[in-house]
Amino acid sequence: MGKIPKTMCGVVLLGHGGPEMLQYRDDLPVPHPHDGEVLIRVAAAGVNNTDINTRTAWYSKGDQDSGDASWSGQALHFPRIQGADVCGAIVEVGDGVERTRIGERVLIEPCIRESRGHLLETPWYFGSECDGGFADYATVAARHAYPVESPLSSLELASFPCSYSTAENMLTRTGARDYEVVLITGASGGVGSAAIQLAKARGAYVIAVTSPTKADDLRGIGADKVILRGDDYAETLGQNSVDVVIDLVGGPQWGGLLEVLRPHGRYGVSGAIGGPLVELDIRTLYLKDLSFFGCTVLEPDVFANLVTHINDGRIVPLIAETYPIQQIAEAQASFGKKTHIGKIVLQVDRT
Q1: Residue 266 bridge partners (DSSP)
Q2: Alpha helices, DSSP H only, in the chain?
Q3: pLDDT in tens, the chain (351 residues)
């Protein structure tokens, strides 16, 4: 695999704030794999909401210095190497890991339950509570590095971990299954477009919410019906017409999602790009016997199931744009415009 250098290139987050808090450096120390860990040469890393939300302290319910500005509600330590969507190859292993793993091409599970040989009481997010993949090298517990056997490029594979595992987790938590009607908001984004494909793989009938310019693209990846952002859900679909809602938006239309859920319907949420504060009529919740699922920490089998889908070719990557890692600020600015479908990915390996 070649000699491992002592220093590497990468992007460090210096603190909460705008893109000026991201600094590209060429003198970062290469991490050393501790017991039970592997060292990964990063090839590509995707851009996602969590990286930006963490940088801007969006998760904090107070101000950005209140100590709860990460997805887990813990204070962050700076400088931090972000980057949760990682594809790369194992180049070294720590004690307790078979050396036969060296050379494996892997995807990193972004929900971290083990670090430096210790189980974590509260899971971490790769690139948040620990350093991630916006650098030449990264370490992670061996259990979180999943071998992948696929003809897809590293850029394509790096589009999968966060978005697709989040989508699969939401579908798992809500129990979406054959012949059920699944409504997906924010359907053109990375998680939304992943949810379309994964819901179809379960045999569901999929309704996607998007803008007019993206409707045909979402039909092309499996959406059975497309409704437009801003449409009244009940008027368009009819009350009590949906079994499962996969919500990534929140915002002022949120109450309408509960109106279209059938009695005993299930609602899963893992995003609030339309606004985090919503109005709930509790009568709708209890009179319809609805179940609500907040979805952040991955269920134990979710990432393994996702890798199986990838290896079997049952899902396809959706790459909107690629950038060299040095242009991370431009990549995140493009991400924030929300005009793309699928994922924006950074190329880390410069060879």
Answers
A1: 244, 291
A2: 49-56, 154-157, 161-174, 190-201, 215-220, 233-237, 254-260, 282-287, 302-311, 328-337
A3: 578 999 999 999 999 999 999 999 999 999 999 999 999 999 999 998 888 888 988 876 655 555 556 656 667 889 999 999 999 999 999 999 999 999 999 999 999 999 988 889 989 999 999 999 999 999 999 999 999 999 999 999 999 999 999 999 999 999 999 999 999 999 998 899 999 999 999 999 999 999 999 999 999 999 999 999 999 999 999 999 999 999 999 999 999 999 999 999 999 999 888 999 999 999 999 999 999 999 999 998 999 999 999 999 989 898 999 999 999 999 999 988 888 888 999 999 876
- Domain shared by 230 and 331, yes or no: no
Range of the domain at 97: 7-160+317-347
Q: What's the token pair of residue 47?
A: 């851009």
- Assessment of whether the complete model's pTM goes beyond 0.85: yes
Same domain, residue pair 269 and 328 = no
The token duo for 331 is: 């990549």
**What is the domain-level CATH number for residue 168?**
3.40.50.720
Residues 156 and 12 reside in one and the same domain: yes
